[in-house]
TrEMBL record:
S-adenosyl-L-methionine binds at residues 116-120, 139, 166, 180. This is Release factor glutamine methyltransferase. One of its GO terms (biological process) is methylation. Substrate binds at residues 180-183. Belongs to the protein N5-glutamine methyltransferase family. PrmC subfamily. GO terms for molecular function: methyltransferase activity. It is an enzyme of class 2 (transferase). Keywords: Methyltransferase, S-adenosyl-L-methionine, Transferase. PROSITE patterns: N6_MTASE (PS00092).
């Protein structure tokens, strides 16, 4: 099968499987098989695909038809300024989380603690943009930490990673604490898309309760782990802004709810006095 025919066939196959954005996803999978960026597919000679390429394309399309996320199939997600390895052990970094990174880079800090680091996307993006800063990423998943360490090494960022349940075992103080914690309430899980609910790690999605457990822990321990005048930035669900801001205010912080590009509440910023 030639490249042009393979593109059309892949898009038709995903459309038949009911995949939204079928042509886009088909191109991402085919481009990964060929080792190129999707935008270059139109620039290639219309050559015949090899047997190995066809086999890998078929496996990728079958996985997507079963609702496996494209990032897991191709093995990476582009986030902020870098490419991050993604596995079923990690949450897929999402574009809306870049709002948190942008806000963090507008603050004064030389040290950062990332609670629940996952792929390391937030921590690594921050350290790559601020040479000379130091950072620690924690996670309760050893498998996720291995992915984060590999991403840091590939991108060329020096960061420390440790197995920890929120602040457990974390020593020292940091100018900035960041987190994209599990904020989906247990009773909201059934409403998630199959791509998310069936394929991404539940421990990174939900606390198994009201979706606010992590924020209670982060707010309660913030003053014990922040430098004087330090900040906390946490990603939130679109209906959680006031509740999460109130937790940090009760802990002694000045708070602000920040919206994403779609106008939804996305991040809570908490500043603790010197």
């Amino acid at each position: 099968m030639r490249l042009s025919e393979a593109r059309r066939d892949a898009a038709r196959r995903l459309t038949t499987a009911g995949i939204e954005g079928a042509a886009r996803d088909a191109d991402r999978i085919l481009a990964a098989v060929l080792g190129i960026e999707p935008g270059r597919l139109r620039l290639l000679d219309d050559r015949a695909l090899t047997g190995d390429e066809m086999d890998r394309l078929d496996r990728g399309l079958a996985a997507r038809s079963a609702r496996q996320p494209v990032a897991q199939i191709v093995g990476f997600r582009d986030f902020y300024a870098h490419r991050f390895r993604v596995t079923p052990d990690t949450l897929d970094p999402r574009p809306e989380t870049e709002v948190l990174v942008d806000q963090a880079l507008g603050l004064p800090w030389k040290s950062v603690l990332d609670l629940g680091t996952g792929t390391g996307a937030i921590l690594i993006s921050l350290l790559a943009a601020r040479p000379g800063a130091r950072g620690l990423g924690t996670d309760i998943s050893a498998a996720a930490l291995e992915v984060a360490r590999g991403n840091a090494a590939r991108i060329g960022v020096e960061a420390d990673f440790t197995l920890s349940d929120w602040y457990g075992g974390v020593t020292g103080r940091f100018d900035l604490i960041v987190s994209n914690p599990p904020y989906i309430a247990l009773d909201e899980m059934a409403g998630l898309s199959d791509d998310v609910r069936d394929w991404e790690p539940h421990s990174a999605l939900t606390d198994g309760a009201d979706g606010l457990t992590a924020y209670r822990a982060i707010a309660a321990g913030a003053t014990d782990h922040l430098s004087p005048g330090g900040h906390v930035l946490v990603e939130i669900g679109p209906t959680q802004g006031q509740a999460v801001a109130a937790m940090f205010a009760q802990a002694g912080a000045e708070t602000r709810v920040i919206r994403d590009l779609d106008g939804r509440d996305r991040v809570v910023l908490a500043r603790f006095s010197a």
